[in-house]
């Protein structure tokens, strides 16, 4: 399996962001695995990088009985929109919109170890921007006589690029605002703008028909600041 992983990583890197088909790549390389000397060089070049096993996708180890995550790679936020520490002990199928099909695939894995390939759509926005992922599930025996479901979560469409920290926070705020109840929209909007920008004061300013202004909502970072909510200001306060 390790030589195959190294070859798959080479294949993914060579795709240069184009659509990459893991099953096809695996079939192409199945009969052309390198000998151990070639493999050592390939492995050292592509796999031995601090903090990661391969340059694409993420991984989860799941209980085939409870479907809870037992272990996972540290980059799950990039693909699943959920930090690794939050994914641990969570029910893996609930991370996906199509949770029922993911749960069924995990609980009905082939005891002989034959991989199952299914699509999966994360229920949260991911940093890589992908809406569809490929899940490769394999049942693996444990030393204690039990079984684990090993899940490779892989990209199935061209990467849109990892969002920067600020872009990710803005995207998160937009999702929060969209879910806000209508009667709390103003409060949530201002709170999210303040969270992203860090400004001391965020105001929602309404212009009336005669062009005078009114502060209809306000969020203050420090209680010592003077509040302007419900205050009216003449039209001349705003440069024409």
Automatic annotation (TrEMBL):
Database matches in SUPFAM superfamilies: GAF domain-like (SSF55781), PYP-like sensor domain (PAS domain) (SSF55785)
InterPro entries given in the database record: GAF-like_dom_sf, PAS-like_dom_sf, PAS_2, Phyto_chromo_attachment
GO BP term (any one): regulation of DNA-templated transcription
Signal peptide: none
Domain Phytochrome chromophore attachment site intervals: 181-240
Protein name from the UniProt record: Phytochrome chromophore attachment site domain-containing protein
């Amino acid at each position: 399996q390790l030589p195959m992983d190294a070859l798959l990583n080479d294949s993914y890197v060579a795709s240069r962001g184009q659509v990459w088909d893991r099953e096809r790549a695996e079939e192409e390389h199945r009969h052309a695995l390198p000998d151990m000397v070639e493999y050592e060089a390939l492995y050292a070049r592509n796999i031995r990088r601090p903090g990661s096993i391969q340059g694409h996708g993420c991984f989860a180890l799941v209980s085939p009985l409870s479907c809870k995550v037992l272990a996972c790679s540290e980059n799950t936020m990039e693909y699943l929109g959920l930090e690794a520490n939050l994914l641990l002990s969570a029910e893996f199928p609930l991370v996906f919109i199509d949770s029922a099909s993911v749960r069924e695939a995990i609980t009905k894995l082939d005891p002989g170890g034959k991989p199952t390939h299914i699509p999966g759509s994360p229920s949260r926005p991911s940093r890589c921007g992908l809406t569809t992922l490929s899940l490769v599930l394999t049942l693996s025996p444990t030393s204690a006589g039990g079984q684990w479901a090993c899940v490779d979560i892989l990209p199935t469409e061209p990467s849109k690029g990892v969002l920067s920290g600020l872009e990710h926070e803005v995207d998160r705020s937009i999702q929060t605002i969209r879910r806000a109840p209508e009667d709390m929209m103003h409060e949530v909007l201002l709170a999210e703008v303040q969270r992203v920008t860090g400004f001391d004061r965020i105001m929602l300013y309404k212009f009336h028909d005669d062009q005078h202004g009114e502060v209809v909502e306000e969020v203050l970072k420090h209680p010592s600041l003077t509040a302007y909510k419900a205050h009216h200001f003449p039209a001349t306060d705003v440069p024409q």
